[in-house]
Design a protein that fits this description.
Structural class: mainly alpha
Shape: globular
Largest sheet: none
Order of helices and strands: HHHHHHHHHHH
Distance between the termini: 32 Å
Number of helices: 11
Oligomer: single chain
Radius of gyration: 18 Å
Length: 217
Amino acid sequence: MDYIYIKILLDIASWNLSIQYSSATQASLLTNLSPIWVGLTSFLFLPQKPNRFFWLGVVVALAGLVLFMGFQLFADLAFDRGFGLGLLSGICYAAYLMLSKKVLRNVNILNFMACMTTVGSILLLFLCLLGGEKLNGFSTLVWESLLTQALVCQLLGWFSVSYALTHIPAQQVSISLLSQAVLTALLAWLLLGEQLSACMMLGGILLLTGIAITFRK
């Protein structure tokens, strides 16, 4: 369990630092490479090897993700500190999924979530205090936003991920999480009035098709 807490801390810290040193789009892309790391680790070290449909699905899904995010992103890629931190975030994310899969074979989901969130919060609080970060004095809107993220994004979201890990392989969970890009775009279109380009729609279709391919036996 200690390894999971370390991976969570590294994932969250490297993800946020990557955004500071580069862009949110680049950090998202590099973090979403986690299916590759999960697949390679499974192939090299685990008895349950990814089949050919998994690798075909990964290629199709990542091609869709590239199309969805736009080719200009790759023209602007800079192999700097932000790039390295984004890459580290994806590796830690993959490690978290695989270690969680192993732990959840012997631990109840609710107990797992309680331990994970409690220890993770304590570690992050320690880092905030160590770095002299501001912890109060925020507006009501900010507190409402933080509460919503805590209940929906963290509690409900990670509970769903943990539940999925108890029923399907970590490889399929990791690539299924790529669908969040499509869902985010759809919600932004419905709630915020943001436009969906033809390129984004085609990329989204490819991405979802790639996810479906990985579930082939």
